[in-house]
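pasting for the record
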Amino acid sequence: MSEHIVWQDAHTLAVGGRGWPDATWNRLPARAQALVPPDLWEKSTQPAGVWVGFHTTAPTVHVHWRVTNPELGRHNAPAIGQSGLDVYARDAAGRWRGLTVGLPTARDNLGPPIAGMQPGHPEYLVYLPIRNALEVLEFGVAPGEQLMPAPAFTGLPLVYYGTSIVPGQGASRPGMGHASILGRRLDRPVINLGFGVVKRVL
């Protein structure tokens, strides 16, 4: 990675779409691992619906992310949706508009810079992979520029529970799972607790 970029761990920015602040990128807290079936726990490590929000003074923001599973996509789950990132910006009317995506090419990814950032722009929002756990997520700017946390949504959250369609099974981009779309439409936080079919050991 370039020595001229200052990298910042995404945990220092605003993180939403999760119900427990100690859950890192997971959708369930660490204490749940001993209480739920192993298959459900594995699905909970996939950060569907989890997002990072920020302001920036920089015109360009770099992004580096690393996922755990080398299978980036499946026949029914495009690689961008399963293992990539989805970037949105608020427009002048306060509506969320798609800006760009982070296309994964390997487990470890240094995506093309997010260009066209507007210093002083109200908010940027980055949705995380739907079906691949994250090991690393960091954003980088030029020396002297700043990244600052910006909660994308406020108010009481909606908790959405269900099967594989809820996290966004087959969605083309991480932000296009219907629970995430609902959050942007209502401008409210949504906690995605859709986990698909859970294998049970009898």
